[in-house]
Amino acid sequence: MRNRTLRETPASLKITSALWTALALLVIAPGTVSAVIESDLPVEVFVRTPPTPVKANGAVVLSYELHVTNFRAMDLSLEHVLVYDVADSVKPIARYPDDGPIAKVWHPGAPPAETEDPRIVHGGQRIVILFWLQVPQGRDVPRTLTHRLIFTIAEPKGGRVARMVEGGITPVVDRDLVPYAWPIHSGQWLEANGPSVNSDHRRAMHALDGRTFVAQRLALDLMKVGDDGRLWHTDPAKNENWYGYGQEVLAVDDGEVVQICDSIQENTPLSPTRAVRMTRANICGNFVVLKLREGEFVLLGHLKPGEITVKQGQRVKKGDVLGYIGNSGNSDAPHLHIHAIDGPAPLASEGIPYVFTEFTVLSSVKPEDLDGVLASGRLPVSDGKTLEVVHKREIPSGDEVIRIP
After folding, report:
1. Domain check: are 308 and 213 in the same one?
2. In a domain? residue 180
3. 391 in the same domain as 307
4. Which one of 75, 232, 259, 399 is most buried, counting C-beta atoms within 10 A?
5. For residue 106, what are the CA distances in angstroms to 66, 73, 130?
6. How far, in Å, CA of 323 to CA of 284, rounded?
7. CB neighbours (10 Å) of residue 199?
8. Residue 361: pLDDT above 90?
9. Alpha-carbon distance 180 to 185, whole Å?
């Protein structure tokens, strides 16, 4: 998709120079900008995979990535991103970073640099802005989105100038989501690394076959909570001591088995190393891919080796046993990984939304506490109370303790 600067914007999206100046001065901190220049900036902005609305935490959410590439031989500082419904170019749906954790700037391929400002886009660099955008209450779900990105640039004589790029126009795909049955039995489970801007799954962008894919855009991990409120007992270095290990993995709907992997050796829980070297072929461990409908597949991964109970090409019914929870592939401890995709390839497909029939959120876990939860086996309890919030036809998000009916 070609970048659309202010001068290339359709009539329905044009704003006057005076309005643009006022907009820039409103969203940029006072005293940081010496001038506002209305001119072209060589920045490409596009959305590769259009979002599909999904309900999470009682709100309609759009999960997608905005790719931003700086073709200028100097640094740009990304100050703000404003997201608009094309049908309403006056009032933004959301403003980053003003509206909190709706988005996160990611520098793919760059080593972590704690001292570097994440807003800086170096010359020749691409950043990816991960969106987990809630549609405001009272607003219709937009049919088409566009974005206004406000950058500042240092001037040779001091001060900074602000410039805007408008682009990333993308349709919003309306799709009826058929609720999934849970792939595990009833009880309490830790739903970890669920959809959000902070999940490691969101940054699992794989460059395969000459292009990038985000198969795990809405992936989540499920770990069984025992009657003692813990994830494991006695020695955590043994897979069998994790309460979820060996639990049945069930078909989420009627479908056809289109891919299977059943030979990957299991890891030692919480070990810094893997049992086998990670490759594109084994990163999901032992898995089953089901085709549910045209353009809708689901992957269930990290299963026990040698115990998958179905064959490729076999038709299955909702609730049929497919295999058993294990600790194979890129896995720190026994758990079930699930993600829905638009094609049969586990990683060379795009992640699509899905929802479950019903679940109850009991409590939440802070992302920074998740490693400690795995190491101790104990789930944090703040005041002994549970939330007991029932969700129907939604997808869990973040890191939560949930009850499956």
Report:
1. yes
2. no
3. yes
4. 232
5. 10, 20, 7
6. 14
7. 24
8. yes
9. 13
pLDDT, position 359: 97
Domain finish residue from 113, 137, 171: 171
Q: Which residues of 13-35 are buried (b: 16+ CB within 10 A; e: fewer)?
A: bebeeeebbebbeebbeeeebee
What is the domain count for the chain?
Answer: 2
Q: What is the CATH number of the domain that holds 247?
A: 2.70.70.10
How high is the pLDDT of residue 264?
97
Percent helix, strand and coil across the chain, each to the nearest 5: 10, 40, 50
Q: For 18, list phi and psi in degrees, rounded to 5.
A: -65, -40
Same domain for 221 and 255, yes or no, is yes
Domain match, 21 and 148 both: yes
Distance, in Å, from the CA atom of 355 to the CA atom of 125, rounded to the nearest integer, reads 36
Domain's final residue, options 140, 171, 202 = 171
Length of the chain, please?
Answer: 405
| Identity of residue 278 | M
Task: Decide: residue 281, CB within 10 A, 0-12 exposed, 13-18 middle, 19+ buried.
Answer: exposed
Q: Please determine, for residue 215, whether its predicted confidence score (pLDDT) is greater than 80.
A: yes
DSSP 3-state of 26: helix
Asked whether residue 137 falls in the same domain as residue 220, the answer is no
If pLDDT is split at 50, 70 and 90, which confidence band does 115 have? low
Residue 226 located in a structural domain: yes
Sign, Cα dihedral of 327, 331, 333, 336: negative
Q: Are residues 149 and 202 in the same domain?
A: no
Q: What is the SS3 assignment for 158?
A: coil
The residue-averaged pLDDT of 37-41 equals 63
Residues 359, 294 share a domain: yes
Tens of pLDDT along 162-198? 999 999 999 999 999 999 999 999 999 999 999 999 9
Task: Please state the φ and ψ torsions of residue 39, each to the nearest 5 degrees.
Answer: -155, 170
As a whole number of angstroms, the distance between CA 389 and CA 155 comes to 53
Number of H helices, E strands in the chain: 2, 26
Would you say the pTM of this structure is higher than 0.85? yes
Question: Is 220 inside any structural domain?
Answer: yes
Phi and psi torsions of 233, nearest 5°: -130, 160
Backbone torsion region of residue 274, taken as left when φ is above 0, otherwise alpha when ψ lies between -120 and 50, otherwise beta: beta
Q: Which domain holds residue 64?
A: 4-171
230 vs 222: CA distance, rounded Å? 14
